Every structure is written in C-alpha cells, then in structure tokens.
Amino acid sequence: MDTRSAIIQVGQLAPEFDLPDADMEMVRLSAFRGKKNVVLYFYPKDDTPACTMQAVDFSDLEEDFKRYDTVVLGVSRDDCISHGSFRDKHGLSIQLLSDIDGEVCRRYGVLQEREVEGKRRVTVCRSTFVIDKKGFVRHALYGVNPKGHAHVVLDLVKQLALKAE
Asked: Which sequence positions are flagged as catalytic?
C-alpha cells in the first residue's frame, strides 16, 4: 500500500513548514520567499551509504547552488542530534532538517509503506523539490537515484535561473 496521498504537483504553492536543523534552530520555508530558490530533498536515514553520497554531493555543489540564489535543505525523520553527528562526521555544509513526526513528509507525499526485513514499515521515498523564489514548486522528483542526483538538480536550478532572466 502506498501512503503518498498528497503528491505535489508542479506549479502548486509549496507546502509551508517550520522545522529544526542540526543545531536546533528553526527553519521556515517562507523565510526564503522573495530571496532564494529552495532545493528541498527528502532522504530516508542519516549516515547510510546512499544518503551520505547524496548529502556529500549536495554539499560539494553548495557554492554552485548559491551562485543561482538557491539554498539546499535536506529533510529526514532523524532527530537533530543524529543530523548534527551526520553533518560533522562527513563535513556536510547543507542544512539538515528534522521531521520526526513525519508531518512535512506527509504534506510532500514522500512517505510510503513497504516491506523491510519481513515487516511493513513507513519509509521516506527519496524525493526532491525545486521551489522558486515565489514559493511555487517548479520540479517534483519522486523515487530518485542518489548517484549524480545533485548535478541533475543543479542543472534544473540553472534552467530556472535562465527562465527568470
């Protein structure tokens, strides 16, 4: 059974959120409106091989994203302490946000029920949203492959910047 009931559509206003980062500082999506594009990516778990690869890639490209007035935010259901350890262990520069109760994950339609080791569990489907400065979703990518994904998203942000000129 798939629990991704609220699939986000391109062109809709991105669902608002207010989540703590690894330093327990609150990050509000609306704070970027009118100032920055936002790459909002959801990942299953801190410090797993695929999630680490993806977070490192986004961190390595952070300066490139900044050139296009874009901030990268990673969201998982891990707590702030886990995010801090993950960030420090791998030298991550992007902000990692904690959605312990999964409310923001539900709003973005990234939760799915699947069988893991013989048990049914709700997990986060690796997904990425590119949100423009006005707060609208310009790209909604569900079930992404982490390898090379940050470069794909950077290309989408570049295209968004060209259209804005």
From this structure: 51
